[in-house]
Amino acid sequence: MKPKMKRIWSLLLAAVLLCGLWTPALAQEKITLEFWEMSYGSDDRYTETCEKLIAQYEAENPNVTINMTYQPWDNYYQLFLTAVSSGAAPDVASCALDQPDLFAQMNEIQYLDGVIDAWKEEGVYSDYTEDMLNFFKYEGNQIAIPYMVGYRGFFYRADYLKEAGVEKVPETWDELLDACAKLKAWNPDIVPLALTGATNGIWHCFMSFAMSNGVGILDENMAPTSETPAFKETIDLFQKLRENGYVAEGVLGHDGAAAETLYYSGKAAFFFGSFGSKIFDYPEVAENSDVLACFKGPSGDAVGTVSFPDALVVFSQTKHPEESLKFIKWWAENTQPLFTEGGCWAYPAKASFFSGEVFADKVSQGVLNKVLPTAKTATWPIQGMFPGFSQINGEYIMNYAPQAALNGGMSTDDIAKKQAEMLQEALDNAAE
User: Fold this and answer.
1) What pLDDT band is residue 411 in, cutting at 50, 70 and 90?
2) What phi and psi values does residue 75 have, to the nearest 5 degrees?
3) Could you give the 3-state DSSP secondary structure of residue 94?
4) Structural domain range at position 129
5) Got the DSSP string for 261-316?
């Protein structure tokens, strides 16, 4: 669908949504919408809650059947790209932060300006921040609705720090290294710092440290930062973590679940990852845990941590654009149970969803008060998407530097040079 036609559809939708003028013919037509929902829950509660919500929507819209497919994050980039490129895209999907921009460039995204216009009239628009909505714009058009926000940061065991003689919670890299040394001396069976080494979690952690040292993946001029002093300091930090035994043996084989298990089983003092409700399945750990964002580096001015706003999209390939847009609007407005009942490990993009007992716990309050104010999108300091980020994110290109540092055998300069080359190649590919 051409951009002009997408805009026309969007304007027509706004009128339909505001006036409720669904024609009898449309109301009687039996259709099925394919909905790809990404994995935002770690157990069956999430899928069961999704199914309840879908049943509610189908009861309110008896002409519509929603066929939901629950998609894992493993290989998500290629999964979506293959489906869209081959004409097999779903009607509606939740997706990673980089994908709407990529598919908009491919002319495969249905514009959602009509939904935004309807929300302005209905008073829903203010439930989202302008920055978050603008993040999902392409050439002035709304291409996605903010859905989930994955905040990254640290859990830490306050009781372990106290027993190891760490007098205050670390705030800087040097203080973290000092705390790790004391923890290792106190109890060699405790891993000072549990990290994900095998998947994209490793670069989320690495870039949180880098951002706390004043650098992002690229600088404001769209140039890789990998060979800057501040980035090299971050590589050096990860080498020190390996050399001093402050990370688990075999860390490069640890996925998120393995790192999580180390912490939740009481075998780690710090854990970097996503915040979620699973910690409360381990009462002793939850009782003695607290939250922080990251640690300020020697070249940084402030703490920063990576955050990932994900989104809801409608693909241009849909044969049912009106119903798809109607569904995505409803889904964005009615999915608070995913957070209150579904064990969702992400946080809502919709402000009014931050309510109820589920957000009153120590972890949620820590995220809201300590992590959220420091959160930066993965493209910082660039505002919004940049060409090439979808490949960088989807192919885990930023895994190289931290994995090489934790593996050993290479100098900081060589790691930095190779990382810069890989990033530049992705940027060049996007420019072709």
Assistant:
1) very high
2) 65, 25
3) strand
4) 3-150+308-362
5) HHHHTT-EEEEEEE--GGGGGSHHHHHTEEEE---B-TT-SS--EEEEEEEEEEBT
Based on the fold, state whether residues 128 and 192 are members of the same structural domain: no
What integer pLDDT is reported at residue 203 of this predicted model? 95
**420 in the same domain as 346:** no
Q: Would you call 100 helix, strand, or coil by DSSP?
A: helix
**Beta bridge pairs of residue 150:** 308
Same domain, 68 and 82: yes
Greater confidence, 293 or 278? 293
On whether the CB atoms of residues 212 and 300 are closer than 8 A, the answer is yes
- Say how far apart CA 49 and CA 128 lie, in whole Å: 23
Closest CA to 39 of 194, 262, 199, 154: 199
Give pLDDT, residue 394: 84
Residues 79 and 208 in one domain: no
CATH code, domain carrying 258: 3.40.190.10
Q: Which tokens sit at 79?
A: 């999964």
User: What was the pLDDT predicted at 313?
Assistant: 98
136 pLDDT exceeds 60?
yes
Please choose, from the candidates 90, 86, 45, the residue with its C-alpha nearest in 3D space to the C-alpha of residue 71.
Answer: 90
pTM assigned to the model: 0.79
Q: Which one of 82-91, 121-130, 142-151 scores highest in mean pLDDT?
A: 82-91
Strand partners, 191: 268
Please report where in the chains the tokens 């404001």 appear, as a residue.
220
Residue 305 · residue 151 · CB < 8 Å:
yes
